[in-house]
Amino acid sequence: MTTAVDTVRDTPFVVGGRTFHSRLMVGTGKYHDNETMARAIEASGAEVVTVAVRRVDLDRSQETGILYHLDPNRYFLLANTAGCFTADDAVRYARLAREAGFNEFVKLEVIGDQETLLPDVQGLLDAARTLVKDGFRVLAYTNEDLVTALRLEDAGCAAVMPLASPIGSGLGLLNPYGVRTIKRRLTVPVVVDAGVGTASDACVTMEQGVDGILMNTALAAARDPVGMAHAMRLAVEAGRTAYLAGRMPKREVAVPSSPLEGMLD
Amino acid sequence: MNDAIDVMVNGERRPVARGATLLELLRSLELDPRAVVVEHNRTIVRRPRLGDVTVAPGDAIELVHFVGGG
């Protein structure tokens, strides 16, 4: 993978044996209309696009589904188990999603609390073990707890996805240390999922060295989703490149940039 | 009505013809079998088998697809 400048060489972004070109993954929920969604996803440059599994509305069955707007040859569809509160439910949704026939990847969510949508890590681990055994490539949405992340890796997850802040909150990266620690300790890719609100959040998150970011509401709820998608694309690339380039050390005192010699008397 | 039975489709009670298959149920709902995944009494029924499985009174059928999500 190359960034905008040749001097900064990046490693390929590989999840579950598949190489992706963009480190930005995007969701498809909460858009005002499907046309805006399609244009925003295009502007984001994302290749991995998440979708949810829900009942068909039997009274409106003639409507065009979301897949009509997402060419499976162009985008990698990543089904989620959003809305599941137990391991059994999440496994059920994952199996239904796989049956839709795109791939064996699943973004696993097992939610433990309605208000914060924080994960139920025990249910998450149970579901992850079952799904890995069943042949799934599991990308597990979790909190920024290192031990849970290590357990998920041990369970065979293809990627671990710590949150920046609660889903849909737009509060940005609340625990850079926690996310950085997870990245440092894990071998599998770490993709921050949820909570990024604007481009600076995405940039700071990527500067922690994580492998990627998944976001949805930051685009869908922006005044101009297409414009924000473009900004996020740049921010993810900027943050990644800055991480690779290595930031200067922080100092508590000023250090002059101009020479002290050659000053006039 | 001897020739109709009630089944639960996506949580709603619906009458279907006795002996109807899942494929016939989809047709009656004007659903494209390629666009939905069918779960019959908690078991996923793959597309090629939809015409082989008949529904019985009280069966629980879930018809799902992909929607926007994060």
Keywords:
heterodimer; A: 265 residues; alpha/beta; TIM Barrel; three-stranded parallel sheet; 8 helices; B: 70 residues; mainly beta; Ubiquitin-like (UB roll); five-stranded mixed sheet; 1 helix
Strand-helix topology:
The complex is a heterodimer of chains A (265) and B (70).
Chain A: E1 13-15, E2 18-20, E3 24-26, H1 34-44, E4 48-55, E5 76-80, H2 87-99, E6 105-108, H3 121-133, E7 137-142, H4 146-154, E8 159-162, H5 176-185, E9 191-193, H6 199-207, E10 212-215, H7 217-220, H8 225-245
Parallel strand pairs in A: 3-10, 4-5, 5-6, 6-7, 7-8, 9-10
Antiparallel strand pairs in A: 1-2
Chain B: E1 4-9, E2 12-17, H1 22-28, E3 37-40, E4 43-45, E5 60-68
Parallel strand pairs in B: 1-5
Antiparallel strand pairs in B: 1-2, 3-4, 3-5
Report on this model:
The complex is a heterodimer of chains A (265) and B (70). Chain A is of the alpha/beta class and 265 residues long. Chain A has helices at residues 34-44, 87-99, 121-133, 146-154, 176-185, 199-207, 217-220, 225-245, and strands spanning 13-15, 18-20, 24-26, 48-55, 76-80, 105-108, 137-142, 159-162, 191-193, 212-215. Chain A has a single domain (13-57, 64-245), classed as TIM Barrel, CATH 3.20.20. Chain A is built from eight helices and ten strands. In chain A, α2 links the parallel β5 and β6 (105-108). Chain B is mainly beta and 70 residues long. Chain B has one domain (4-64): Beta-grasp domain (Ubiquitin-like (UB roll), Roll). In chain B, 10% of the residues lie in helices and 40% in strands. Chain B contains one helix and five strands. In chain B, a hairpin with a 2-residue loop joins β3 and β4 (43-45). Chain B is globular. The interface between A and B is medium-sized, with 36 and 23 residues. β4 of chain A pairs antiparallel with β5 of chain B.
